[in-house]
From TrEMBL:
Keywords, alphabetical: Signal
Stated name of the protein: Uncharacterized protein (TIGR03435 family)
Signal peptide start and end residues: 1-18
Organism: Granulicella mallensis
Pfam family, one: DUF3738
């Protein structure tokens, strides 16, 4: 993940953010059954990996800044403050729940682990800044509403490069994923669709910024896919344009190296 030096922008809101998600009344705080955090060995250099499982996460040679970005679904360039070791130190993490859990539950568990083991404290600031603004195209949304109960299925699967299959996807998650794929443009994706439900869809496009060696490995049909912007409009009925919007920044107030296992 790339880092971005934040330019000066107008602060339109600054809100305190709960350091641990508050569980519903009468419900226990969600934590992993097993949580191992160890400094990575130097021999692992270059093998950065973060994998989600039905019952937890496995990370190898991953910086803490990447973990925060993934678990709070915010691009790393929008994480401000904190010591330099956030991006320099690497860790191996094995976090496992007592059973299969939903993606949201697993993310809450990991957020709680960051608070408990790293003593993370932060707040969110919202600023008007350059962004990609996502709205509904004049043709209307073509995504299928999914009203099924929450499940432990991953909301997005990737059958091949540039082919996404969404199952019960909320728009904040989708915008975060779009931001990850457009991070070279240094513009986060801001959701102004007004869509508040969960949606099923398939999206097929030629990913931006693919290196030539990966392009050469694609089939002629894959290389002829539309751009991400075209695919969003034609396949999902969504419009993505460069502009300005309310961008959230994750401001770190305090963090320590992790406590021992």
């Amino acid at each position: 993940m790339k880092n971005l030096t934040l330019c000066t922008v107008l602060v339109i809101a600054s809100a305190s953010y709960a350091q641990t998600p508050t569980p519903p009344s009468g419900q226990p705080r969600l934590t992993f059954d097993v949580a191992s955090i160890r400094p990575s060995l130097p021999i692992q250099h270059g093998y950065q990996d973060l994998k989600a499982r039905a019952d937890g996460y496995m990370a190898t040679y991953v910086p803490v800044k990447m973990l925060i970005a993934y678990m709070y679904r915010i691009p790393a360039r929008q994480i401000i403050g904190g010591p330099s070791w956030l991006k320099d130190d690497r860790y191996d993490v094995e976090a496992k729940a007592d059973q299969k859990r939903t993606v949201d539950d697993l993310n809450t568990m990991f957020q709680n682990m960051l608070v408990d083991r790293f003593h993370l404290k932060f707040h969110i600031e919202t600023k008007e800044a350059n962004a990609y603004v996502l709205t509904i195209d004049k043709s209307g949304s073509k995504m299928k509403v999914n009203d099924q109960p929450q499940s432990d299925d991953m909301p997005m699967t990737f059958s091949s490069i540039g082919v996404w299959s969404g199952h019960r996807v909320p728009m904040p998650y989708f915008c975060w994923l779009l931001s990850q794929n457009l991070q070279d443009d240094e513009r986060p994706v801001v959701d102004l669709t007004g869509l508040t439900g969960f949606y099923d869809f398939t999206l097929s496009f030629l990913p931006p910024g693919l290196p030539q060696e990966q392009l050469d490995q694609l089939s002629p049909e894959a290389r002829d896919r539309p751009t991400l912007f075209e695919a969003l409009k034609d396949q999902l009925g969504l419009k993505l344009v460069a502009g300005k919007g309310p961008v959230q920044y994750f401001v770190i107030d305090h963090i320590d190296r992790p406590t021992s296992n």
